[in-house]
Amino acid sequence: MLSWISKRAMSELRKNELLSSYEAVKATVDSYVKGCGRNDVSLLPVSKLKPASDIQLLYDHGLRSFGENYVQELISKAEILPKDIRWHFIGGLQTNKCKDLAKVENLYAVETIDSLKKAKKLNEARAKLHPQANKILCNVQINTSEEAQKSGLSDEKEIFEVVQFMLSDEATNIELGGLMTIGSWDVSHSETEENHDFAVLCQWKKKIDDKFSTDLKLSMGMSSDFKQAINQGTSQVRIGTDIFGTRPSRAEASI
Ligand SMILES: *Cc1c(COP(=O)(O)O)cnc(C)c1O
User: Is there a domain that residue 249 lies in?
Assistant: First the structure.
């Protein structure tokens, strides 16, 4: 058993560590953003598999948006953490989990919509469960690396269908925010100036903006490749490891 004093001391240590890595990442992101003459890139801390106490520390530091990957983990954290957190779901989404996700009243964004069916399910569930809440901001996830194991759409017809639905009057409780991609590990760890997968996402943005008169935002860039993502025009980078440190396995993680 830890004594009361050492628990406090541990928490103070964690606070110092977490805030300093967050501030370092924020400064790096800001300098890249400035370096390419922009001012409109947001930093989403990805807190998956990290304890709610970490999120609370960053919340107390003024942060309000966090990214999570697992539906049940997001639900559990949302229950115990402040209600003005803007949760972003960024994990693989199953159709039968759309309803559970829609229950979280302060769910702000779902960044991984990769089928018309899921878009419809999420909209329908939100309309039923929280008709007065904010419309959930949705990104269409694109598989830019054409890897079979990656989720996301790459077929033009399907992509246009989802976009069309999100822009239609039928989408009463969700709205289109933009496009999201992860990209391949190999590409993100190569030293090239330009990331091929991010370039593909930019091409999709152009195609969709031209066809639907939208101005879609892009969500791309993680700890290993956020510099390229900023250079290539992202609106948001999603960063976990560089802020929170390495993650425990799912079996070892506790909320
Ligand atoms: C885990 C995850 C991140 C954060 O990745 P890091 O490499 O830890 O920064 C970003 N986006 C998605 C979709 C993720 O699953």
Answer: no
What is the Å distance from ligand 1's center to 246 Cα?
Answer: 11
Structure tokens at 177: 């925010």
Q: Which CATH number covers residue 22?
A: 3.20.20.10
Q: What is the C-alpha separation between 77 and 225, in angstroms, rounded? A: 28
Plot region of 49 (φ>0 → left; ψ -120 to 50 → alpha; else → beta): left
Task: Please indicate whether residue 205, judged by its CB atom, sits closer than 6 Å to ligand 1.
Answer: no
In a domain, 7, yes or no: yes
Cα–Cα separations (whole angstroms), residue 198 to 37, 142, 186, 234: 19, 10, 13, 9
Q: Are 219 and 24 in contact (CB under 8 A)?
A: no
Provide the mean pLDDT of the chain: 95
Q: Point out the ligand 1 atom lying closest to the alpha carbon of residue 224.
A: 7
Q: Residue with the nearest Cα to atom 12 of ligand 1?
A: 90
pLDDT tens, position by position, 193-240? 789 999 999 999 999 999 999 999 999 999 999 999 999 999 999 999
